[in-house]
Amino acid sequence: MIHLMYQYVLLIFFVFQLMGYCVFAETFTQDQYEDDDIYTRAHFFVVSSPQQMPQIHNFHQKSDVDWVIFYGFSGRTYEISAIEPGNRCDIVLELWGIDGQTMLLDEPVDKKGTGESEVIDTYCQEEGLYHVKIYHSDQTIYGENTNYKIDIQPTDAPFSGCITGLITDAKTGYRLINVLVSTDKNRQCHSSSGIYQNKFYDGLMGRYLIFQHEPGITTLSAYYENYNVFTETIEVKEVETIEKNIQLTPYLPLDFNKDNFLGLADAISGLNKLAENRISGGLLNEQVTLTDIIMILDGVCR
Question: For 145, which of 28, 88, 258, 298 could close a Cys bridge (C-beta 3.0–4.6 Å)?
Answer without folding.
Answer: 88
